[in-house]
TrEMBL record:
Name the record gives this protein: Enzyme related to lactoylglutathione lyase
Keywords associated with the record: Lyase
Protein's organism: Pseudonocardia parietis
InterPro entries, per database record: Glyas_Bleomycin-R_OHBP_Dase, Glyoxalase_6, VOC_core
Gene Ontology MF term list: lyase activity
PROSITE patterns: VOC
Chain ranges of the VOC domain: 3-119
UniProt cross-references to Pfam families, sorted A to Z: Glyoxalase_6
UniProt keyword Lyase, yes or no: yes
Coiled-coil region(s): none
Lineage: superkingdom: Bacteria
Length: 126
C-alpha cells in the first residue's frame, strides 16, 4: 500500500540545515539512515518529520512545492518570523502576496522558501 512519507528539503550544507531546521521546529536529528548526504529529523515522539538531503542544485526562487509552518494568531506569526530570522532565515523579495495575506514568506539559510501561515486569518485569497 502506498503511503505519503515526509517532506525532504535539498541543501548544500547539511550541518547548517540540520541546525536551522532542528531549532526552528524543535526536532532532533536521527541516526536512522544518517550519512554524508542525508539526515532525518524527528519529532518528540520519534516520528520522522523532515528529511534533509545533500543537493548541488540551487534552490528554486518560486518552488511549486514548499513547507507551510502553521501558527494560530497574528501575534504568534510575528514572534515566530522574528525567531526564525534570528536563527538564520531571511526575508526574500516576494511579489506574490495577495491583498491581505495570511502568510509570510521566508527562506532558510540555504535559500529554500517556506511560509509561516496564520491560521486565524487563513485562507488568503489570491
Amino acid at each position: 500500500m502506498l503511503r505519503l512519507g515526509f517532506p525532504v528539503v535539498g541543501v548544500t550544507d547539511l550541518d547548517r540545515a540540520i541546525a536551522f531546521w532542528a531549532a526552528a521546529l524543535d526536532l532532533t536529528p536521527s541516526a536512522e539512515w544518517a550519512n554524508a548526504g542525508w539526515r532525518t529529523l524527528t519529532g518528540p515522539d520519534g516520528a520522522r518529520v523532515l528529511g534533509l538531503m545533500r543537493s548541488d542544485s540551487p534552490p528554486e526562487p518560486r518552488p511549486r512545492v514548499h513547507l507551510d509552518l502553521l501558527v494560530d494568531t497574528a501575534a504568534e506569526q510575528t514572534a515566530e518570523v522574528d525567531r526564525l530570522v534570528a536563527l538564520g532565515a531571511t526575508v526574500p523579495d516576494w511579489d506574490g502576496y495577495p491583498a491581505e495575506p495570511d502568510f509570510v514568506v521566508l527562506a532558510d539559510p540555504e535559500g529554500n522558501v517556506f511560509c509561516v501561515v496564520d491560521l486565524g486569518r487563513a485562507p488568503s485569497s489570491g
